[in-house]
## 1
Amino acid sequence: MIEELLDEDLILIVDNVEDKFKLIEMMVDKTLSKGLIMTREPILDKIREREELESTGVVEGIAIPHARTEAVKDLLLGVAIVKEGLDFQSLDGKPVYIVFLIVAPEEAKKKYINVLARISRMCRQEEFRAALKEASSPSEVLEIIRKFDV
Amino acid sequence: MERILLYIVSGEARASWDRAIELSQSLPATLFALFIVDKQTVERVAKLKGSDEVDIAIEIEEEGWKYLYHLEEKSVESGVKTALFLKEGNSIEVIRNFVKDREIDLLIVGYKRGGGIRGRKYERMIEQLIEYIPCPVLVEKEGGK
């Protein structure tokens, strides 16, 4: 199911990035250049607003920034791997290496919960996290997700 | 008091949600919302239904995200800094470690009187929380005085 929402153009692999908002911008830009959204500002505003107040934790090293906004028509998913880790200002203060970005309209609530549940299930597996951290290309990331999202 | 943990057991315990949000807003404190896919519950339900444990765990986990989703909506609307967590394991053990690791100041949990084995199990869980969790525990009575 997760792989149906993703393709290589929505996956970002970087060594490092200055801060979490810059990374989120880069991820949103991927959806913009793919034509999945018309404008990025309302989406970025919503994510920033949420990130100020809320964070989602499954296991250490993973962040799942998410927002609900009518600025998107359907659920959007993006993945980023930050090789050197990133201070995501998470409540445990630990660096984040894997980021799943979820943006969805209110009416996609069921899908949103399902995607969140699937991502958290995969992320709890150490093997999955280790494989993603080592991935060197978007196609490899996609392959790993395909293997673990059962 | 800076860190409040709300242990979400089910969607019925809304009085405890409201209390946690209200307290976090007025103090102010960061609200940690935790749902646990309890291994024993998974095993028990799978046995009762004759289903696969993995399927039951998935079912419970999705239910958990649904509660966390609703809690998040309410708390963020109130301007409360909120962190959502879903973990697997033995509930008491998971909560105890969570409280220690994140230096939680107060644990809030809902309580609704229920009959039968389920009700007694729940009461036992509350007793264990009070006994084993290394921070004050606020048990919020659900559904009236």
Note: The first strand of chain B starts at residue 3 and ends at 8.
## 2
Amino acid sequence: MSLRLPKGGRLIDRDKRVVFSFNGKRLTGFAGDTLASALMGSGQRIMGRSFKYHRPRGVVASGVEEPNALVNLGKGKTHEPNQRATTTEIFQGLQATSQNHWPSLSWDIGEVNALIPRFLPAGFYYKTFIHPRPFWKHVFEPFIRQSAGLGKAPDPKLQDPDRYEQFYAHTDLVIAGGGIAGLQAALEAGRSGAQVILCEQSAHWGGRAPVDGVEIEGQPAEVWIKNAVDTLEKMENIHLRLRCMVAGVYDHGYVLAYERVSDHAPQDDVVRHRLWRIRSRHVIAATGALERPLSFAGNDKPGVMLASAVRDHVVNYGSAPGERVVIVTNNDDAYRTALVLAEAGLTVPCVVDARARAEGALPKAVRARGIRVLAGMGISNIKGLRGVVAAQLCRQDGAGEVIEDVICDAVAMSGGWSPVVHLWSHCGGKLLWEKENSFFRPDPDKPPTDQNGEGFVICAGAANGALHAGQTLEDALNSTRKSLQDLNMPVSDQAFLKVSVPEEEKLEPVWIMPAKAGPKKRAKMWLDFQNDVKVSDVQLAAREGYESVEHTKRYTTLGMATDQGKLSNINGLAVLAGALGAEIPQVGTTTFRPPYAPISMGAIAGEARGALFQPLRRTPIQGWHEDNGAHFEPVGYWRRPYCFPRKGESHRDAVNREILAVRNGVGLLDASTLGKIIVKGPDAGRFLDMLYTNVMSSLKPGKCRYGLMCSENGFLMDDGVVARLDEETFLVHTTTGGADRIHAHMEDWLQCEWWDWKVYTANVTEAFAQIAVVGPKARALLNKIGADIDLSKEALPFMGWAEGRIGGFDARVFRISFSGELSFEIAVPASQGRAFWDKLLEAGAEFGATPYGTEALHVMRAEKGFIMIGDETDGTVIPQDLGLDWAISKKKDDYLGKRAQERSHMADPERWKLVGLETLDGSVLPDGSYALDEGVNENGQGNTQGRVTSTYFSPTLGRGIAMGLVRHGPDRMGEVIAFNTTKPAAKGAAPKTIKARIVSPVFYDPEGEKQNV
Amino acid sequence: MRRYSAFAIARQAFRHHEGWERAWRSPEPKARYDVVIVGAGGHGLATAYYLGKNHGIRNVAVIEKGWLGGGNTGRNTTIIRSNYLQDPSAAIYEKARSLYETLSQDLNYNVMFSPRGVMMLAQTEHEIRGYQRTAHANALQGVATEFISPRRVKELCPIINLDGPRYPVLGALWQPRGGTARHDAVAWGYARACSDIGMDIIQQTEVTGVQREGGQVVGIDTTRGPIACGKLGIVVAGHSGVMAERAGFRLPIESVALQALVSEPIKPVMDVVVMANTVHGYMSQSDKGEMVIGGGADGYNNYTQRGSFHHVEETVRALIETFPIISRLKMLRWWGGIVDMTGDRSPIISKTPVEGVFVNCGWGTGGFKAIPGSGWAMAELMAKGHSPLADAFSLDRFREGRFIDESVAAGVAH
Amino acid sequence: MLTFRCPYCGIDACETELAPGGEAHLKRFGPGSADADFEAYLFLRHNAKGVHFERWRHAMGCGKWFLAARCTATLEVFGTYPAQTPEPPQDIVAAIRAKRPDWSLS
């Protein structure tokens, strides 16, 4: 039974009790506990269930590498699945529940799987569930989905109440890891004057050294650590962050660090997570090493733990997984656990050492305490159903014949250590297999490189393969100095610190225990605990030809669990190499990708959620729209009023009312979003002649001209009215969505192709509010508010513009019309836009002045047969398709898109061309409907001869109107063709079609008498 | 080949699974093949498979620089759909989708095709019109889709947030027989089937040159020596430009990084695939329980399989708006692939300036869903010199201005 | 997350302030040009795995377009220079050669 020791626990405060719950049971821990240590201290051994076989599992590790002890944390709004108990600091009222079982943690119906795992080897999904075909989707898959998954999903009805934020920083160095290597690195870098951000993922500085009994300069490591942190805190160039994990290293020195600000102490008004986005010249990865499990039968049972994790729990928290703990190892380090356990008053029946000899200082010290050390031995099997009852010992070089049953309630295992090289690898740093120590370490000749082609990540200490505390500090200092030298910063001449730790003898690689274990045993040796991948699975993958480590990983799911293979990768690789008869480095390693450990989506999104999700562009009149019930539609980052429904009015009704108000009286449109670009300079006319398909250079000051812009690929990309302000200055109007794009397009050509042309451009879209005053009573309204401009037809005719004061406002007024009505588009300085709008509304009351939205605008332009970019065009349409040949200059040698339009497909007479469409029954054609043609094509698809591009109910005409592109359309006026629908006429019948007549696209006022008044 | 079945597993269970044979052979290359396919990803392997199955051409080698299925086939978000707008796209993607329906049975390898349904959200008026157009086109193309209401969207996907403050869901284009499949299994299943009919899959072998005589291909140079061939199919996705250069021509292709990520696994909450194009994100839930997330591609040429963080950031932001529950999930794994983007973002299945050399590339961000159809069309083109499914995707379209533009539905808004 | 030094304003700009613009040094073919030339100009790209000349705009900064020589396999940047440069300048070519002795300007 796991237990809380009567004393000890350097990180807990036994005076502060913390009450929490697990599966509804009220438990008590101490301040400083992790959830894992508190559960262990409360006698809770089973903490979760495995993924595939639903086997009962206890905690195995003591940090982010934990594969088993994952819980649902919190409730309701704060519920969060898959929290690691080992990295969750407990707080008053913490609520946790276990995952992946039904009905309960101790009795899980899914565990029946475990009785028949031999029927569920790696890749069994691929070989079965093939017949009958519908069963996969409807029977097998739902069952697999339900039994897979881990944590409970958050409730979709609830919103995450927490806040997340992002910080940005530029620095010389990021040091990842606050163990003794990281602290040493920070001290040296601090002395050099470098700007440093030092991140430690846990809540404590110093890492493993205090647990391992390291002495530095003759004092316990803890003393040195405290002094180091005190020194660092006083250095202004050092920035210290606890609970902050360097999650990823990206190209050109970009670093992401994930700070869990208040997970340990949830409270209102404090951000939960903070994502640091750092640009650093160098990264020092002092990320330590992780212990590897040993592969013996039953190594996944609750109570079998990593030796270092047992030590951590005893020393740091005074919690132990059992009272009688067998140690099994292939190295000297695990003997420290035996010493710690003995010191804590627990029983260590024996240390089982797979090596032939165990004569180092630590084994000697263990023997000296009267603990049996059994060399050349291994574990054949672990007895026990829901925990450990006994370890059955055997010879390591045999097949597992049991020599002795050792009664115990926990096992501490150690298969050696692997440097944490993730941050080195994220940007492509290569690794070396160091046979002597059986681990991968950074290849110093092949670092990840930055924008200058220079290495920018360096590993320090254990992460660099310097596992023993003495080497660790020396390596950390050397690595830091190398980094500082690369950065042209001074290094100190401080001597290496004196570290006293017992000498350790070499480990002996042990990938399978015992070495000659048969298939039955190999099927009980777990490599990946969470995903239930065993030695036999990896061997099966190799046998079946999944020889690449990538194949094996994917076939068996080794290393794909939430711990991302931190415990299983090397062991799996070694087993694979063994199965293939290859050397480990030949089989390769897998690529490490960010994040090092999972980070919250909330932190990735940061503050950008809800209203702040994207920038919001507001016109000067936006407030009025909001106050007056506008129904908005998003257009780029703008939100434009679609219509202004009155109480009880549908959107459709509102649009119809707005249209009739404009056609019969006067309407007001907030056209401020329209793009406005100044093009100025001696070559401005020449430049616009290249940009537009028609000639702009001949435009006279005081006049406006409609123009079309094409991409160099020939397609219509934007349209609008150009006004010539003076000899050298043009004002280019673009579509709302086009302003930024067209301005960038202009700059592209001016800077990169015609850089000797004397032209400047400026996007002044937001400098002006623009209001369209539209309808037969428009002039009367403007005359009422008074203008010092002569607004008469004679003085300011259609397609003219003038500048002056209207209603007391500085204004530019353009006689342009997108509705076919008498129309004045008036631009005033943005700051006066709202006042001008209010004035027009007030003065317009007697004329029935009606604000209208984008939908009324669209319908009215369709009634007039005006094209709309995005409706009549879709990126595949050229001006010639739209009957706009009149706007394509034949005289110009060149314009953007001209050459493209000469290509065979663009000059093809079979291209569909713009026409108007009138249904025979007056109904509205469906949006996007296609005109049917005879027969089917080579692929059996129905042939078509055209399509609807815009279709509306016209309240002016009281019927449906549409525009479309039809093959030879303009030559087929009066012809009736059929359009498809997606609605079947009756169940099982073919969808019905709608007949429409090809007509002129100009439905309203074809002579243009209304706009030209 | 021993067939896979539940009985086979039961039989093997009593022999501790020690009797399974290799899924595919690992042969030494022969001196000559009728057809050599470069690239043992899904598209290359499917091409080889249908050369054998449909056209009786079995003296075929598939040469792979790394490991079969190790490129984009194993790096995508596994979405399968055919609700494309333009006829040629709808034809080939629907062919692929219909082949996926029976692929597990055809290959005797469970590729776990799961027609769970794919919806593409309309979040602007413009998108509504675009998807209604697609629905009308699909009706004539034999692709079963419909435009559905927000209420139906919510029924099909209860975790969706219809009323986001910026982009409320206004409807969706719904393809009920779209879905997902297990990406690795597609490559492995094809490889096993190819190997079974006598084709050689030669991994860890790089093609270093293309031998030509009088404008005609006669063989290739590889890191394991020269291999003669009658026809050569280049099916190497992001590395198409590199291979084309070795064959002496250039392609309208640029290689960029596309990123994807998964969350930690949770119990099932989402049984459909949802794509939100206005905000650039898409998501589904895998059988393991991971939320599988993708977004837009980076904008610069890149061969590193590493992308830029801010693209992932934008995708996650967009998806938190659409699916608020993911805010409290954690990103587990994040990776990139190199995708080959053409000038019109549609693929190329074509003859090339070199006689006997064919190219299948340019699938960009959407290749996985096309694998069976792409292989079917490429095999037909290589065997017969013409394929109705492939013809529109020929290289000369870029010279003629005859583009296949699928970005239309998300075109330019006013 | 790339960085480039903008040759105009001298700032080390992060990718998020920049807009990519594809291959650099393309020669424009207009009306009267051959179909093959026009196709090559618009579509055929080196797409090199290695040294790549490309266009970037300091869109969220000074607004200027500039050109860069970058390795698409390692993301190393050999140098940046103004957009008004018809072909890679000598110092950039030298900087590339220093790092990639086998490379030649094709």
Note: The first strand of chain C starts at residue 3 and ends at 5.
